[in-house]
Design goal:
It contains 7 helices and 5 strands, in the order E-H-E-H-E-H-H-H-H-E-H-E. With 174 residues, it is an alpha/beta fold.
Length: 174
């Protein structure tokens, strides 16, 4: 079972959709609390759903159960809560919500968890993936854009989703 993660900030649409298309993933699960902000650009809920279907042949869904609460976000972003404490609280919230039981592993197999943060190191999408990895057997986590070479699982890429000639691949820092 493979779960991908990706953030959309600091990426062009070409890079973002290129990463998704190259991954071979079949669906994208939006784990953001707020997914309709004008600041999200091409990653606004309705636009993203359209682009995923048209460009990459992927299904879109929003899973609010995989998002932190507004209070948690505010404590971290506005009130100086440390990352370690934020992560601990968020893990507690996932445990309360029993996401490992309420979600089906098959629904997340070959899916991409989306959040806004560019890198996974201090983003809750990584925490979600790692939490599920602790409860479900055989989970491999791939952070898109963090590999030395892109995973190639799709035999052919939709013509409308051209390869990205400008993206660079960094070594995985996790």
């Amino acid at each position: 079972m493979r779960i991908y993660t990706v953030g959309f900030t600091k990426k062009t649409a070409r890079t973002f959709f290129g990463l998704l298309g190259d991954s071979g993933a079949t669906s994208l699960i939006d784990v953001r609390l707020n997914n309709v902000s004008q600041l999200a650009g091409f990653a606004k809920r309705d636009d993203l759903s359209f682009f995923l279907t048209e460009l990459c042949g992927m299904h879109y869904s929003h899973q609010i159960a995989l998002a932190p609460t507004q209070q948690m976000l505010d404590d971290y972003k506005k009130h100086g809560l440390s990352w370690a404490e934020y992560e601990s609280r968020f893990r507690g919230l996932m445990s309360e919500r029993q996401i490992e039981e309420s979600l089906s592993p098959s629904a997340l197999d070959n899916a991409v968890l989306l959040c806004s943060e560019d890198k996974p190191h201090q983003c809750h999408r990584r925490v979600v993936a790692e939490y599920l990895q602790e409860y479900w057997e055989g989970v491999e986590i791939v952070h898109l854009g963090e590999l030395s070479s892109p995973p190639k699982r799709r035999a052919t890429r939709p013509a409308a989703c051209p390869p990205d000639s400008v993206s660079t691949w960094a070594e995985d820092l996790t």
